[in-house]
Amino acid sequence: MEGWTEEEMRNKDLMAPCGLYCGTCGVYIANRDGNEKFRAVMGNLYGTKTEETACLGCMQPDPPKMLYGFCKSCTIRDCVKSKGYYSCHQCEEWPCSMIENFLFATGVKVMRRTIPIWRDKVAEHGDEKGSVEWARSECTRYHCPSCGEPLFRGAQRCRSCKTPVADELDGSL
To answer: 0.90 cut: is pTM over it?
Structure first.
């Protein structure tokens, strides 16, 4: 699939427990693609220096090689690990106050959309394959409806054809 490799979709490091799939995160994509201009844009958005705006996925084994500062202090990530899960889709308490009170409203919207999909994919395919199919569904979702170019989660408009995409995808940040 254009935009992501099969290896990325199978990489559990990119399977954020909250449902914000790291493979579609602008910080991850900017780092993966070596796009310094995009890293600067993402850093400005989240209030970090360009050189600190890099990540290889929030579920990297400890100690992580490259974990974005915001993700290092994520209470959701810590909660999932403390319960012996790797995702909120496994937790009967979902959605909890950590989800509902997440810092970004767009993130809450995405989490509320993705965790039920993850649960459905796991129920249909089993844990391993279902999780990969969930990641694949997220990668499939983030393509421009007009030109088909890959996007990132939170995109406001397509970088290729400039079509506004926010309302169709995640809304405004």
So the answer is: yes
